[in-house]
Design brief:
Bound molecules: 2-amino-2-deoxy-6-O-phosphono-alpha-D-glucopyranose
Structural class: alpha/beta
Shape: globular
Number of strands: 11
Number of helices: 7
Radius of gyration: 17 Å
Oligomer: single chain
Order of helices and strands: EEHEHEEHEHEEHEHEHE
Low-confidence stretches: none
Distance between the termini: 15 Å
């Protein structure tokens, strides 16, 4: 049982975070099946954080059940801390291996995650190449997003403009506070990250944002009902015509229009 609003973006309020995970995972699996059947590659934009863990778990289950063919699946992750070793337990490289890539038969060369080991002077070129690789792959067919408590998407923190591209960013204090537990305190938490930009995200053909829990309720309400503004970068999703926001009741509790 879930409620759907027809406004832009489409908002789906499901009964639980598990229900969100099931719907999101099913959509991604269906897309891969459809594109495989049409002999087309599937280019996925992927997210990290606690929220997508259940979705990835469900997706792995469906992938095994349907014997999904990953030979034409190409992935681009949104972001990575900087600096960050790929083998560090806090890295998004590790997260993606542990929560998804180690469990599906994807070609390692088809996986792209921003590189947190670069020297600072190489970052700008690397980011331009990341954008080019997305284009060369044919563009992102489906982008999965979470949302930060401050309304960030990827690591596009408040202040990130609609025309931003893949780049090095300074993390917002709220983002660092939320990540501090994983890093054993705020002083150990990176202050920078490499992230796809808002414009990079908005170029995806289809976007699904998932959010659960009351800590996200304010950012979700702003995203859906608040003014479109750099203060809440997720509000830029309202300029895209193929976005669905999947919420549990706690994350949806402040929405006026639901
Ligand atoms: C992180 C990631 C985002 C993610 C957000 C929410 O900082 N860079 O891509 O959407 O925070 O994370 P969580 O799902 O753990 O609340």
């Amino acid at each position: 049982m879930h409620i759907v609003t027809q406004k832009k973006p489409e908002v789906v309020i499901a009964e639980s975070d598990r229900a969100i995970a099931r719907m999101g995972a099913a959509e991604i699996a269906n897309l891969i099946q459809m594109r495989n059947a049409a002999d087309l590659p599937t280019v996925l934009g992927l997210a990290t954080g606690k929220t997508p863990i259940l979705l990835y778990r469900e997706f792995i289950r469906i992938a095994h059940e349907k014997a999904l063919d990953f030979s034409r699946v190409i992935t681009f992750n949104l972001d990575e801390y900087y600096p960050m070793n790929t083998h560090s337990l806090q890295s998004y490289h590790h997260f993606m291996r542990a929560n998804l890539f180690d469990h599906i038969d994807i070609h390692p060369a088809h996986i792209h995650i921003p590189d947190g080991t670069l020297s600072r002077k190489d970052i700008a070129n690397y980011c331009a190449e990341y954008e080019e690789k997305i284009q060369q792959a044919g563009g992102i067919n489906l982008q999965l997003l979470g949302i930060g408590e401050n309304g960030h998407i990827g690591f596009n923190e408040p202040g990130s403009d609609v025309d931003t591209r893949t780049r090095l960013v300074t993390l917002d204090p709220i983002t660092r506070q939320n990540a501090a537990a994983e890093f054993g305190g705020e002083t150990n938490t990176p202050s920078e990250a490499i992230t796809m930009g808002v414009a990079t995200i908005l170029e995806a053909q289809r976007i699904i944002l998932i959010a659960s829990g009351s800590k996200k309720a304010h950012a979700v309400q702003q995203t859906i009902d608040g003014p479109v503004s750099t203060n809440v970068p997720a509000t830029y999703l309202r300029s895209h015509n193929n976005v669905t926001i999947y919420l549990d009741p706690a994350a949806a509790k402040h929405i006026k229009s639901a």
